[in-house]
Backbone:
Protein backbone atom coordinates (compact mmCIF):
# COMPACT_ATOMS: atom_id res chain seq x y z
CA UNK A 1 0.00 0.00 0.00
CA UNK A 2 1.61 3.21 -1.23
CA UNK A 3 0.79 5.53 1.68
CA UNK A 4 0.89 2.87 4.43
CA UNK A 5 3.28 4.91 6.54
CA UNK A 6 0.87 7.83 6.70
CA UNK A 7 -1.02 5.92 9.39
CA UNK A 8 -1.13 7.53 12.83
CA UNK A 9 1.71 6.59 15.24
CA UNK A 10 3.98 5.77 12.26
CA UNK A 11 5.59 9.21 12.18
CA UNK A 12 8.13 8.96 14.99
CA UNK A 13 11.08 11.22 14.20
CA UNK A 14 13.55 10.23 16.91
CA UNK A 15 16.79 8.53 15.91
CA UNK A 16 16.69 5.66 18.40
CA UNK A 17 20.51 5.64 18.46
CA UNK A 18 20.51 2.05 19.74
CA UNK A 19 24.33 1.96 19.66
CA UNK A 20 24.33 4.29 22.71
CA UNK A 21 22.01 2.17 24.87
CA UNK A 22 24.73 -0.11 26.20
CA UNK A 23 27.15 2.74 27.01
CA UNK A 24 26.29 3.80 30.58
CA UNK A 25 28.87 6.61 30.61
CA UNK A 26 27.54 8.04 27.35
CA UNK A 27 23.94 7.86 28.63
CA UNK A 28 24.90 9.67 31.86
CA UNK A 29 26.58 12.34 29.75
CA UNK A 30 23.48 12.69 27.55
CA UNK A 31 21.30 13.14 30.66
CA UNK A 32 23.47 16.06 31.79
CA UNK A 33 23.37 17.88 28.46
CA UNK A 34 21.59 21.25 28.63
CA UNK A 35 19.58 20.37 25.52
CA UNK A 36 18.35 17.08 27.02
CA UNK A 37 14.56 16.85 27.36
CA UNK A 38 12.21 14.26 28.75
CA UNK A 39 8.59 13.38 28.16
CA UNK A 40 6.89 12.65 31.51
CA UNK A 41 4.19 9.98 31.30
CA UNK A 42 1.70 9.61 34.15
CA UNK A 43 -0.18 6.31 34.39
CA UNK A 44 -0.04 5.92 30.63
CA UNK A 45 -0.93 9.53 29.85
CA UNK A 46 1.84 11.58 28.14
CA UNK A 47 2.36 15.24 29.01
CA UNK A 48 0.94 17.64 26.45
CA UNK A 49 1.61 21.35 26.05
CA UNK A 50 -0.38 24.15 24.43
CA UNK A 51 -1.82 23.34 21.00
CA UNK A 52 -1.71 19.57 21.66
CA UNK A 53 2.06 19.30 21.26
CA UNK A 54 4.22 16.96 23.34
CA UNK A 55 5.28 18.43 26.69
CA UNK A 56 9.05 17.94 26.57
CA UNK A 57 10.59 19.36 29.77
CA UNK A 58 14.12 19.66 31.16
CA UNK A 59 15.39 16.44 32.70
CA UNK A 60 16.28 18.14 35.98
CA UNK A 61 12.95 19.87 36.46
CA UNK A 62 11.84 19.46 40.13
CA UNK A 63 8.65 17.54 39.25
CA UNK A 64 10.63 14.96 37.29
CA UNK A 65 13.28 14.74 40.02
CA UNK A 66 10.57 14.22 42.64
CA UNK A 67 8.42 11.64 40.86
CA UNK A 68 10.45 10.30 37.90
CA UNK A 69 11.46 6.65 37.86
CA UNK A 70 14.52 5.43 35.91
CA UNK A 71 15.01 7.53 32.76
CA UNK A 72 14.39 5.72 29.48
CA UNK A 73 16.54 6.79 26.54
CA UNK A 74 14.21 7.36 23.59
CA UNK A 75 16.89 8.62 21.21
CA UNK A 76 18.13 11.81 19.56
CA UNK A 77 16.12 14.61 17.97
CA UNK A 78 18.44 16.51 15.62
CA UNK A 79 21.27 15.36 17.87
CA UNK A 80 19.59 16.45 21.14
CA UNK A 81 18.94 13.71 23.74
CA UNK A 82 15.33 12.71 24.40
CA UNK A 83 14.21 10.64 27.37
CA UNK A 84 10.94 9.50 28.93
CA UNK A 85 10.15 9.34 32.64
CA UNK A 86 7.36 7.44 34.31
CA UNK A 87 6.00 9.87 36.92
CA UNK A 88 3.11 7.68 38.05
CA UNK A 89 4.04 8.06 41.73
CA UNK A 90 2.53 11.55 41.62
CA UNK A 91 -0.97 11.62 43.13
CA UNK A 92 -3.39 13.96 41.42
CA UNK A 93 -5.73 14.91 44.23
CA UNK A 94 -7.99 16.71 41.73
CA UNK A 95 -8.25 13.78 39.30
CA UNK A 96 -11.63 12.88 37.86
CA UNK A 97 -11.70 9.27 39.10
CA UNK A 98 -14.65 8.28 36.92
CA UNK A 99 -12.96 9.56 33.75
CA UNK A 100 -9.69 7.70 34.43
CA UNK A 101 -11.37 4.33 34.01
CA UNK A 102 -13.28 5.08 30.82
CA UNK A 103 -12.60 3.56 27.35
CA UNK A 104 -11.59 7.05 26.22
CA UNK A 105 -10.52 9.20 29.18
CA UNK A 106 -11.22 12.85 28.26
CA UNK A 107 -9.84 14.30 31.50
CA UNK A 108 -6.57 16.20 31.93
CA UNK A 109 -4.27 16.00 34.94
CA UNK A 110 -2.26 19.13 35.64
CA UNK A 111 1.06 18.54 37.42
CA UNK A 112 2.28 21.26 39.78
CA UNK A 113 5.22 23.48 38.89
CA UNK A 114 5.65 22.47 35.25
CA UNK A 115 4.26 25.64 33.75
CA UNK A 116 0.89 26.76 32.43
CA UNK A 117 -0.85 24.74 29.77
CA UNK A 118 0.92 21.47 30.56
CA UNK A 119 -1.27 18.50 31.41
CA UNK A 120 -1.32 14.73 31.12
CA UNK A 121 -3.78 13.55 28.47
CA UNK A 122 -4.89 10.13 27.36
CA UNK A 123 -3.44 9.35 23.95
CA UNK A 124 -6.64 7.75 22.64
CA UNK A 125 -8.55 10.94 23.43
CA UNK A 126 -6.16 13.29 21.63
CA UNK A 127 -4.63 11.11 18.92
CA UNK A 128 -6.65 12.73 16.14
CA UNK A 129 -5.26 16.16 17.02
CA UNK A 130 -1.56 15.34 17.30
CA UNK A 131 1.00 16.02 14.58
CA UNK A 132 2.42 12.85 13.04
CA UNK A 133 5.83 13.18 14.71
CA UNK A 134 4.35 13.85 18.15
CA UNK A 135 1.95 10.93 17.85
CA UNK A 136 4.75 8.56 16.88
CA UNK A 137 7.10 9.73 19.60
CA UNK A 138 4.34 9.59 22.22
CA UNK A 139 3.50 6.03 21.15
CA UNK A 140 7.12 4.98 21.65
CA UNK A 141 7.32 6.60 25.11
CA UNK A 142 3.96 5.25 26.28
CA UNK A 143 4.71 1.79 24.92
CA UNK A 144 8.11 1.34 26.53
CA UNK A 145 7.05 2.83 29.88
CA UNK A 146 3.92 0.68 29.89
CA UNK A 147 6.09 -2.41 29.45
CA UNK A 148 8.26 -1.45 32.44
CA UNK A 149 5.19 -0.85 34.62
CA UNK A 150 3.93 -4.38 34.08
CA UNK A 151 7.18 -6.33 33.78
CA UNK A 152 9.02 -5.52 37.00
CA UNK A 153 9.55 -9.15 37.94
CA UNK A 154 11.47 -11.90 36.19
CA UNK A 155 9.14 -14.26 34.30
CA UNK A 156 11.62 -17.10 34.83
CA UNK A 157 12.17 -16.95 38.60
CA UNK A 158 9.99 -14.17 40.02
CA UNK A 159 12.78 -11.93 41.37
CA UNK A 160 12.61 -8.16 40.84
CA UNK A 161 14.45 -7.31 37.61
CA UNK A 162 16.47 -4.18 36.88
CA UNK A 163 16.39 -1.70 34.00
CA UNK A 164 19.18 -2.12 31.51
CA UNK A 165 20.34 -0.75 28.11
CA UNK A 166 18.88 2.70 28.67
CA UNK A 167 15.45 1.14 29.27
CA UNK A 168 15.35 -1.32 26.36
CA UNK A 169 15.98 -4.45 28.41
CA UNK A 170 15.39 -5.74 31.93
CA UNK A 171 17.83 -8.16 33.50
CA UNK A 172 17.21 -10.48 36.43
CA UNK A 173 19.94 -10.23 39.07
CA UNK A 174 18.95 -13.61 40.55
CA UNK A 175 19.00 -15.91 37.49
CA UNK A 176 20.50 -13.70 34.77
CA UNK A 177 17.55 -13.95 32.36
CA UNK A 178 17.25 -10.98 30.03
CA UNK A 179 13.79 -9.63 29.14
CA UNK A 180 13.10 -7.47 26.10
CA UNK A 181 10.15 -5.09 25.50
CA UNK A 182 7.05 -6.89 24.30
CA UNK A 183 5.13 -6.11 21.14
CA UNK A 184 2.00 -8.17 20.62
CA UNK A 185 0.98 -8.72 16.97
CA UNK A 186 -2.70 -8.19 16.25
CA UNK A 187 -4.27 -8.81 12.86
CA UNK A 188 -7.00 -6.41 11.75
CA UNK A 189 -8.77 -7.18 8.53
CA UNK A 190 -10.63 -5.33 5.84
CA UNK A 191 -12.97 -8.09 4.68
CA UNK A 192 -15.04 -7.26 1.65
CA UNK A 193 -17.60 -9.01 -0.50
CA UNK A 194 -18.49 -7.05 -3.60
CA UNK A 195 -19.59 -3.59 -2.53
CA UNK A 196 -19.76 -4.39 1.20
CA UNK A 197 -17.36 -4.55 4.14
CA UNK A 198 -17.67 -6.73 7.25
CA UNK A 199 -17.70 -4.73 10.51
CA UNK A 200 -18.19 -5.88 14.08
CA UNK A 201 -18.63 -4.34 17.51
CA UNK A 202 -17.73 -5.28 21.09
CA UNK A 203 -20.23 -4.76 23.87
CA UNK A 204 -17.78 -2.45 25.71
CA UNK A 205 -17.56 0.05 22.84
CA UNK A 206 -19.43 3.35 22.62
CA UNK A 207 -22.92 2.98 21.14
CA UNK A 208 -23.10 2.44 17.33
CA UNK A 209 -19.32 2.07 16.98
CA UNK A 210 -18.35 -0.63 14.49
CA UNK A 211 -14.86 -1.50 13.34
CA UNK A 212 -12.87 -4.04 11.36
CA UNK A 213 -12.56 -7.47 12.94
CA UNK A 214 -9.28 -7.99 14.79
CA UNK A 215 -7.53 -10.46 17.03
CA UNK A 216 -4.19 -11.51 18.49
CA UNK A 217 -1.83 -13.70 16.49
CA UNK A 218 -1.30 -16.93 18.43
CA UNK A 219 1.95 -18.88 18.83
CA UNK A 220 2.69 -20.97 15.75
CA UNK A 221 0.49 -18.91 13.42
CA UNK A 222 1.25 -16.90 10.32
CA UNK A 223 -0.44 -13.53 9.87
CA UNK A 224 -2.63 -15.06 7.16
CA UNK A 225 -3.67 -17.97 9.38
CA UNK A 226 -4.58 -15.60 12.20
CA UNK A 227 -6.76 -13.52 9.83
CA UNK A 228 -8.62 -16.64 8.71
CA UNK A 229 -9.02 -18.10 12.21
CA UNK A 230 -10.19 -14.90 13.89
CA UNK A 231 -12.67 -14.13 11.12
CA UNK A 232 -14.10 -17.63 11.22
CA UNK A 233 -14.26 -17.74 15.04
CA UNK A 234 -16.07 -14.41 15.28
CA UNK A 235 -18.41 -14.62 12.29
CA UNK A 236 -18.05 -18.05 10.57
CA UNK A 237 -17.10 -16.21 7.36
CA UNK A 238 -14.63 -18.08 5.14
CA UNK A 239 -12.01 -16.05 3.29
CA UNK A 240 -10.27 -16.25 -0.08
CA UNK A 241 -6.68 -15.00 -0.47
CA UNK A 242 -5.35 -12.79 2.39
CA UNK A 243 -2.94 -9.91 1.69
CA UNK A 244 -1.02 -7.35 3.78
CA UNK A 245 -1.83 -3.61 3.62
CA UNK A 246 -0.23 -1.58 6.42
CA UNK A 247 0.78 -1.75 10.09
CA UNK A 248 0.35 0.55 13.07
CA UNK A 249 2.03 0.72 16.48
CA UNK A 250 -0.87 0.72 18.96
CA UNK A 251 0.37 1.37 22.50
CA UNK A 252 -2.84 0.31 24.31
CA UNK A 253 -0.84 -1.23 25.82
CA UNK A 254 1.67 -2.87 23.46
CA UNK A 255 0.17 -4.01 20.16
CA UNK A 256 1.34 -3.86 16.59
CA UNK A 257 -1.76 -3.77 14.41
CA UNK A 258 -1.19 -5.64 11.14
CA UNK A 259 -3.72 -4.45 8.59
CA UNK A 260 -4.75 -7.06 6.02
CA UNK A 261 -7.37 -7.42 3.33
CA UNK A 262 -9.35 -10.43 2.21
CA UNK A 263 -12.36 -11.20 0.05
CA UNK A 264 -15.04 -13.27 1.76
CA UNK A 265 -16.38 -16.31 -0.12
CA UNK A 266 -19.94 -15.47 0.98
CA UNK A 267 -22.00 -13.12 3.16
CA UNK A 268 -23.61 -15.58 5.54
CA UNK A 269 -22.80 -14.62 9.14
CA UNK A 270 -22.94 -16.44 12.46
CA UNK A 271 -21.79 -14.06 15.19
CA UNK A 272 -20.03 -15.56 18.22
CA UNK A 273 -21.63 -13.71 21.17
CA UNK A 274 -18.59 -14.42 23.35
CA UNK A 275 -16.40 -12.36 21.01
CA UNK A 276 -18.73 -9.82 19.43
CA UNK A 277 -21.99 -8.12 20.27
CA UNK A 278 -22.83 -7.71 16.59
CA UNK A 279 -21.33 -8.02 13.10
CA UNK A 280 -22.86 -6.87 9.83
CA UNK A 281 -22.11 -6.19 6.20
CA UNK A 282 -22.22 -2.48 5.40
CA UNK A 283 -22.22 -1.08 1.85
CA UNK A 284 -19.80 1.64 0.76
CA UNK A 285 -22.64 4.14 0.85
CA UNK A 286 -23.50 3.18 4.44
CA UNK A 287 -19.87 3.51 5.56
CA UNK A 288 -19.71 6.93 3.91
CA UNK A 289 -22.89 7.92 5.75
CA UNK A 290 -21.40 6.58 9.00
CA UNK A 291 -18.24 8.66 8.59
CA UNK A 292 -20.43 11.69 7.96
CA UNK A 293 -22.50 10.87 11.09
CA UNK A 294 -25.58 10.38 8.93
CA UNK A 295 -26.15 6.66 9.57
CA UNK A 296 -28.57 5.62 12.36
CA UNK A 297 -26.62 2.48 13.41
CA UNK A 298 -23.03 3.08 12.36
CA UNK A 299 -20.17 5.17 13.71
CA UNK A 300 -17.00 3.74 12.12
CA UNK A 301 -13.78 3.45 14.17
CA UNK A 302 -12.45 6.84 15.23
CA UNK A 303 -9.93 8.91 13.27
CA UNK A 304 -6.40 7.76 14.01
CA UNK A 305 -7.19 4.06 14.24
CA UNK A 306 -5.86 1.89 11.41
CA UNK A 307 -9.41 0.56 10.92
CA UNK A 308 -10.58 4.04 9.92
CA UNK A 309 -7.45 4.55 7.80
CA UNK A 310 -8.12 1.36 5.83
CA UNK A 311 -11.85 2.02 5.51
CA UNK A 312 -11.24 5.50 4.09
CA UNK A 313 -8.77 4.14 1.55
CA UNK A 314 -11.16 1.36 0.58
CA UNK A 315 -13.87 3.96 -0.03
CA UNK A 316 -11.46 6.00 -2.16
CA UNK A 317 -10.13 2.96 -4.06
CA UNK A 318 -6.62 3.64 -2.72
CA UNK A 319 -5.62 0.31 -1.20
CA UNK A 320 -2.82 -0.29 -3.74
ZN1 LIG B 1 15.13 -14.48 37.21
Residues:
Amino acid sequence: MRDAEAVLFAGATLDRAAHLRGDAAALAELLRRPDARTLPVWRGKPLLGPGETLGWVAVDTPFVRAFGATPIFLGLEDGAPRFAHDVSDWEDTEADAAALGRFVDPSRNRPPGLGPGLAFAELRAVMGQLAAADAGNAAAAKGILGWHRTHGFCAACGAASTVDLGGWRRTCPACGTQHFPRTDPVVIMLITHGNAVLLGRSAAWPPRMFSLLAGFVEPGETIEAAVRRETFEETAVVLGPVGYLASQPWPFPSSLMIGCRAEALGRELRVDPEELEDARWFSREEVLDGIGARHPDLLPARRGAIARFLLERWLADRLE
About this structure: Residues 154, 156-157, 159, 172, 174-175, 177 surround zinc ion (CB under 6 Å). The radius of gyration is 21 Å. Helices lie at 24-32, 62-67, 97-100, 123-126, 132-150, 223-235, 284-291, 306-315. The chain has a mean pLDDT of 95.
